[in-house]
Amino acid sequence: MEQNSFLPILIMLVIAILFAVFTVVFSSLLGKKTFEKGKLKAYECGIEPVGEPHVRFDIKFYLIAIFFLLFDIEALFLFPWAVVFSSLGLYGFVEMFLFIAILVFGLIYIWKKGALKWD
Amino acid sequence: MEALFYIFSVIAIVSALMVILVKNPLTSALYIILCFFALAGFYILLNMQFLAAMQIMVYAGAIAVIIVLVIMLLNLAKIKGAIKDFHQIVISIIAIGLLALEVILYLNAAGEKKPTGIYTNAVINKIGNTQIIGEFLFTKYVFPFEVASILLLVAVIGAYIFAKK
């Protein structure tokens, strides 16, 4: 658990940042630039766009995101469990089984209610 | 390590400021993700690898998705300019005051109080942060752990029922 073991992650982060900066900077340097008013318009079959561009999004997008967050938190508890699993034995297995079972009940509930259906 | 701390501090403070200074809410969302990553860096410097992973997965991953979705769901073209609300100002002053008080109290007590118990920094580094969290979570604090699953269950069902209305 040395901090030096995070050096590869740091190097990867630096490379990722450099790559992102490189891509943005070079594409703006090399690319052809045209400044026209028409370029900024929304393309709508040649007709001038009318009204607001905002459309009402389905609440289902948000609902799925919330479910993702909650089950994501569930999955996070598996990490500390996995590293001490061998020393906990059967007791640890039963604990996690109960934890998952309670959440599976929630999953079945939203499944049966059709919250995961998309139509 | 000192240098890294300052780098993360600068990133955290600047990105947090940019969240409220930039005009485009989506740019704000990107800056808040950067801020979350900088905080994860602090956790790694404090030898809290598990919290760092949690910070990135939950905050920079899931919470950021929810923030972006909220921006998508709200019609931001309609909300023009900052809405100045008296309550908002009062609440923010109280919040800043409490935070300042906390920092002052903490800085005053930092020299006097020493961490107690057998789990010193050296021991934690030897065994591993995630292992210790796991050990405690599944033995001593097993009841709160199981209660957490019920809390998550309530949140799942609650989110569904609110969205249905």
Please explain how this structure is put together:
The complex is a heterodimer of chains A (119) and B (165). Chain A has helices at residues 7-30, 59-76, 78-88, 90-112. With 119 residues, chain A is mainly alpha-helical. In chain A, α3 (78-88) runs antiparallel to α4. The radius of gyration of chain A is 25 Å and the shape is flat. The relative contact order of chain A is 0.05. The model of chain A has no long low-confidence stretch (mean pLDDT 83). Chain B is mostly helical. Chain B has three domains: 1-80, Four Helix Bundle (Hemerythrin (Met), subunit A); 83-114; 119-165. Helix content of chain B is 79%, strand content 0%. In chain B, α1 (2-21) packs antiparallel against α2 (25-45) and α2 packs antiparallel against α3. Chain B is globular. Chain B starts with a helix and ends with a helix. Chains A and B meet through α2, α3 and α4 of A and α3, α6 and α7 of B. Chain A: GO terms for molecular function: NADH dehydrogenase (quinone) (non-electrogenic) activity; NADH dehydrogenase (ubiquinone) activity; quinone binding. Chain A: It is found in: Cell membrane; Membrane. Chain A: It is a multi-pass membrane protein.
Question: Keywords, please?
Answer:
heterodimer; A: 119 residues; mainly alpha; Methane Monooxygenase Hydroxylase, Chain G, domain 1; 4 helices; 64% helix; B: mainly alpha; Four Helix Bundle (Hemerythrin (Met), subunit A); 3 domains; globular; NADH dehydrogenase (quinone) (non-electrogenic) activity (chain A); transmembrane (chain A); NAD (chain A); transport (chain A); quinone (chain A)
Gist of the model:
Chain A is an all-alpha fold and 119 residues long. Chain A has helices at residues 7-30, 59-76, 78-88, 90-112.
Strand proportion of chain B, as a percent range, falls in under 5%
The rough form of chain B would be described as globular
Oligomer status: heterodimer
How many β-strand runs of chain B? 0
What is the CATH class designation of the largest domain in chain B?
A: Mainly Alpha
Q: Unreliable stretches of chain A, pLDDT < 50, 5 or more residues?
A: none
Rg of chain A is 25 Å
Mean pLDDT score of chain B, rounded?
85
What's the helix-strand series of chain A? Answer: HHHH
Q: What is the number of strand segments of chain A?
A: 0
- Radius of gyration based on Cα positions of chain B: 20 Å
CATH topology of the largest domain in chain B: Four Helix Bundle (Hemerythrin (Met), subunit A)
Number of helices of chain B: 7
Largest sheet of chain A: none
